[in-house]
Structure formats: structure tokens, C-alpha cells
Amino acid sequence: MNYPDFWVILTGILAAGSCGLIGSFLVLRNNAMLGDAISHAVLPGLVLAFLITYSRGVVPMLIGAGLMGLLTAFLTEWLGNTGRLYKDAALCIVFTLLFSIGVILVSIYTSQVDLDQECVLYGEIAYTPWDVLVIGGTDYGPRAVWILGGIFLANILFITLFFKQLKISSFDPALATSLGISERLWHYLLMTMVSLTVVAAFESVGAILVVAMLIIPGATAFLLTRKLVMMLVLSVIIGTICAVGGFYGASYFNASIAGFMAVVGGIVFAGSVFISKAFKLS
Amino acid sequence: MTLRFFSMADANVRWVVTGSIFLGGAAGGLGAFTFLQKRSLLGDTIAHSALPGIGLAFLITGRKDFLFLLIGAAMTGWLGAVLINTIIRHTRIKQDSALGIVLTFLFGLGIVILTYIQKSGAGAQAGLNKFLFGQAAAMGKDDVTILAVSGSIMLTLIFVLFNKFKIISFDPGFAKSIGLKVGWLQFLMTSLIVCSVVIGLQAVGVVLMAAMLITPSAAARQWTDRLSLLIVLASVFGILAGIMGAYISFLAPRFPTGPWMVVSISVIFGFSILFAPERGVISRIFRHRQNQRKTTLDHLLKALFKAGLNEKKWDTYYPVDQINKMWSFTKGQLRWGLARLKRRGVIEKSGDMYRLTDTGVKEGSRILRLHRLWEVYLSRFLELPDDHVHRDAEDMEHILTPEMEKKLLKLLGQPEVDPHNQEIPYLDREVTS
After folding, report:
1. Does A89 contact B38 at a Cβ distance shorter than 8 Å?
2. Which residues have CB under 8 Å from A280's CB, separation 6+?
């Protein structure tokens, strides 16, 4: 394995791992499609942050995207309450609008934002090795690896510190409330973490892979175990399989790496359905 | 430019607009059922699932024949729907995650095929990319013919099967009991969703097609409760958004049209949710304010009336701060309310002091009577304890109509005191007993 390939695979693993960890909770809460919606909705936040600050600084991006993610969650709830809409319709309306605005912004400012419409969908993971972090003239390796590595650790920290709250509010909201754990608070905290994870991964792997890695590893792990800790560990392992398999598959067919990671994810999921049937795991 | 577009002198413009009208109308109308069956996100998944079909059709036929691409898209769109059902039925994965898994898997596959085609030398056909976000301007005569035929067939099917679709959407259990073939009808409806998604591919693209199915119905829902009207309105909204999209695509042919169409339909939705009568946000705020104002006025009248009730004399003028103590008014409420009542001629002013006029006394009497009558009713007929009736009467005194009052009086036989042994005033009516 040569040097750039290593970085691409590592970026993929970190993206898939971060998304898998936080996505597991989305799967458990039957909120997977909210993850899908947020992954689309962060786009205008990203572009606006860039257009306002005129730099690709991490902090404005995280703020812009975090705000958009929360906006999606809020708007969906508000529309569901006032508009006599079912939650799924409200969600669909909100994220398609925000994503459209994002795509329009990208199509207008293509030359400035260094993104194009297709890249929004499937990212530019193959170029990550050359977008390096340079501080004071020293080359510290690819920027994406640093950002995703940071988010990966942040997710692990978040889940470890608040394991009890996340677990109880996911499995038994009623019990959580009676124990004084606010279901709403943890919902929105989780959505904030989802938004941050999504935006960190977005640049390198695009909207579609973010959704794939939010949902597929968690759902696959969900089929294979009934223990939450085990599920989280498995989701990272499955994410890793997707990243490695996706990279080599894509190189073989000379196709999109992000797309191939999603395909490998689908295949791994199908495999785990058979395994869980064969061994009666669920 | 605008004139050239709307005069439709240009044959190309005519095709694009016609195509967008069929697309918007069919997607909007059909989407109504998706919307009502809470399957909004299914539309999204089916739309994304159409992508690999487009790529495969191109790989197999080697040509960019619109009809083949549509057939390919329909087949994988269908596959997506089947896969979702299979996952839900055979694993413990919930619908929500199943939708996400199928969506990303098939869409990822589509991206893989598309990028493979792009890089494998057939690069001239990179035009397939326009199916991602749509490009209305690319529609030609043949494409529009296909859209028109399939759109018409779909609308006819909705028209013919309207009653059956209605029943299975609202009450599948009942549908089964009257012998409808629910499974078959659901199958047909899923197929129609697939078709409606597929005809939108060219102008809207797979990524955003779900919005063209759902948002028109959500907007229409704000205006009506009737399914038939909902479908018609949703179609009209869809058509409007379609024309907008076509127009923008005409102005800037290189831009993707899908996002613009979605923004257009979202504007219609936003307008609906704000301004629809009854259900709209604005009219609800307006009604709420009106209620609050009436409540304030009623409370003022009641307070001034009660002040003179003991001695049955209402000729004392009260200074503003004393009126304020009778009820917890805010300063603004008090100023506004007194001015309003004075204009209505129910109170009169002397210096900075106020008292009720004769009409005012009668109106105050009516409000206090309604309050106390309701208390009597609650305690006599619902046997609520006496200390539980006040709060409810506080709300009802503003709501009870003269007809309801008449019935109450008949039922209760004109009681003289309320459960707290306070007098019920009849100053404004003839006592008939």
C-alpha cells in the first residue's frame, strides 16, 4: 500500500467510524431518516460559512452546519405541530428545501467554494492526501484526517461520558423521564453531535456516504448483537470493512470510492441478515 | 427573455413547459396518496433507487435512449420498494432504518456505475449526471411525448380508482372487510409512485424528486380537508412549481433545475402555511388576538359591574388604578380596553375616572350571569365540587351564545344564586317566572 492510499483509507475509516458510532443511536431511536435529513440540510450551512468567512476554517463550518442541523430538527417538529403534517412529510419538506438552497448556492459560487454539485453528493475522498494541514511551515498530514480524527475522539468521549443517559433515553424514554433525564435534551444533544459528525465527514465523503455510514453500520450491528457496547464496537468494525472494501473495489472498477463504500455497506448488511438468521441472533 | 418564455413562441420552450406541467401535475396529484399514507420518505428512497437503473440501462443498451433509461429507472426504483418491504418483514430492522439502508445502497451503486461510465471512455455520455439534479431545458419533443403519455395514464388511473385508493389510504382494515384487494391496490399504488418518480427524473433529478411528491400535498393540506380537492390543488401547485423550474432552466440552462423547482414549491408551501384561512399561522394568530381582546373587554365590564352589584348602584366613578385592582390587567390592556369600551358607549369618563352606562350595566350583568349560570350547571349536573367550578366558568363566560344561555336558563329554571351563594344578576332580561 502506498502512502496516499493509506491516507484515503484512514480518512474513510475515521469517517465511517465516527458516523457509525453516533448513527447507532439514530438506529436505536428509529430516527435514521432524521440523520439522512441532517446530512442533506448541513450543506447550506457549510456554503454560507464559507462565503461569509471566506476561508475553509473548521470552526465556522462546524458552527454553520451545527446550526442547520438543529434548524432541521426544530423546523420538523414545528411543522409537525402546526401544519397538520405527519412527521415524515415535515422532515421531507425541510431537508429537500435546505439541500436545494445549498445546491443552488454551490452552483452559483462553484468557483469560490471549491465544490461542485456532484462533489456535494459523493465527496472527494481521493484528493484528501493532498489537502494537508500546514502549521508554521510544517506538514502535519491531511487536514481531513485531523478533522475526522478529532470528531471520532469527540464522539467516543461523548458516548463514554453520557453512556447512561444516551442508553436509557434511547431504550426507554419513559424511564428516562422518571429518572430526571430529559428525553428532549438528549435528543437535541444527539442531533448536535450528528450534525458535527456529518459536517466533518461531508467534505471528504459527500452527503450520500455520510448517510450510508450513519445508518448501515449501526443497523448491521443491531442485527448481530443485543448488547449496546458490542453494537457500538461492531459498528466501528463494520465501518472499517466498508472503508477498506470500498477503496479497493473502487480502485478496481475505477469508480467513486464513496459510492463503493455504500455498496460494500449494503452487501455487509445483506450478509449480516443471513448470519443473524442462520445463528438465530435476533 | 421573460417575454420570450411566457409567449411560448419558441418551440423548445413549449416542450419544456409542457413536460414540466405533466410532471408537476402527475407528481403532485399522486403524491397526495403517498403523503396521506405517511410514506413520504418511501418516495425519497424510490427516487434515489432509480439512479442505478439509469446507469445500467445505459451500460446495457450503450445508448442514451430516454425510454430505456426510464424503464431501467423504474425497475431499480421498484427493486428499492421491494427491498424495503423484505427488510422490514424478515429482520427486526424498523422501517426508518430500512429506508436509509436501501436508499444509500442503491444510490451508492448508482454513483459507482455513473462514475465507472464516466471514466471508462464513454465520457461523451457524461450527460447522465443531469439525472442527479435535473435539467428541464434538456427535454425535447420525444421526451415530452413520453412524459405526456405516462402522465395522462397515471392521472386517469387516479381518477378511475379514486374511491378505492381513498379507502385503502384512510382505512385499510375497512377496505379488506368490504372485499377490496388491498394487497393488489397497494402494489398498484407503489407502482404509480415509482412511475411518478421516474417521470420527474429529467427535470427534477433523483435527489430532490421526493419534494415534488410531498410538498404540493402538504401545501394543499393547509387549504382543504377533502381528498378530491387536495389532489386537484396539489396538482395545480405541482404545475406552478414545474413552470417556475422550466422558466429558470430557460434563463440559465446550465444550472440544475431540480433545486429551483423545490424552492418554488417550498415557497408555495410557506405561503400556504402562513396565509391559509382557518389553519394558517397568520389567521390563527389573528383569531387568538381577537379572543384575547374580547376576554379583556369582558373582564373590564364584569369588574365594573361587580363593583356596584351589592348596592345595585352603578353611578360611582372609579379611578384607573382602582379598576386595575379589581382584576389583574396589564397597563396596556387597561388603557386599550377602557378606550374601546368608551367608544362603544358602555362606559363613560369623567376626568380620569370611569363608570358604566346603562347599556354597560346590562352587558356586565350578562357576563357575570353567564359565569354564575355555568357554575350552577357544573355543580348541579356534573356534580363537581363547588370549589372546582370557577376556573371553567371563567372560560365559558366569553363563549356562551344567547341560544345556549336560553337553554341553560330553561334547564336550570332561573336560579337566584350560584354555588358560592352569590347573586345571579338578571338586570338585562325580563324575569319570566
Report:
1. yes
2. none
